[in-house]
Fold:
Amino acid sequence: MERVAPWLQTSWDHRAAGNFIGGGTGSGLAVVAATSTLWTGEVPRVPLAAAALAIALGLALVWLEIGRPWRFLHVFFHPQTSWMTREALVAPPLIFTLGAAAWTGGHALATIAGVLAIAFLYCQARMLHAARGIPAWREPAIVPLIVATGLAEGAGAFLILALLTPVGDRVALFLAPAAILIRSYVWTFYRGRLERHGGPAGALNALAVIDAPLLLFGTIAPLSLLVGALVLTTVATPLALVAGAAALGAGWTMKGVIVTRAAFNQGFALPHLPRLAAAGKETGARPGWS
Structure:
């Protein structure tokens, strides 16, 4: 039975996780920066530049994972079927627009960058969902989860960067709690669906291990700190800094586990066990599943 049980895929490793971390945090940061621009009328240049850098670093990591790196242009050939191609097509104009907005301080450029960032984040979420052989990825709830955690990471990164540029920091103090709460809800919904529908035991165990830490350090702690930052204005900056780091670290941990440690394939299943007796029917078997 062990030979047919699910096993951990190795095609996507920490470099692939780094792409989802860098791309998700960068695109989430771009969305928060664009929202701040619309809200305050001021362009937060440092967060926009940091968003472009994070996305570029994430793409560089996944480029290093390719067996033949100089054949990366092949990724652009299948926009009609591949979400990876669509991500690759959105990335250049997104990075360029983010850089231009950071350089010029243009309101329109920052807004366009925010729209492109939403498209990029959605493409990343659909990339995981399209991997039908990995039960933890093909679960439909993975799409809102990746989007939600990207926005929460972006809000957390914005709070940290507010130390360098105070533009829009009060906006992030209100956006971050909402993003963190939504992420926590979608995470619980995602895990609940996997447990109800069944999945590889190794994947469910990997997700269960981080559930309590994510609740404590990724939800309760940053929310408490952000409430304190809104009430205790004299110490708002250090409280917001720690809250942002917690929101960011929780998202990185979650995606790292989903992409690597929970990435068990579905293995093999026997719809009916063979038996020599003519009477009755044996129930099927799915070794290694919950």
Observations:
- The mean pLDDT is 86.
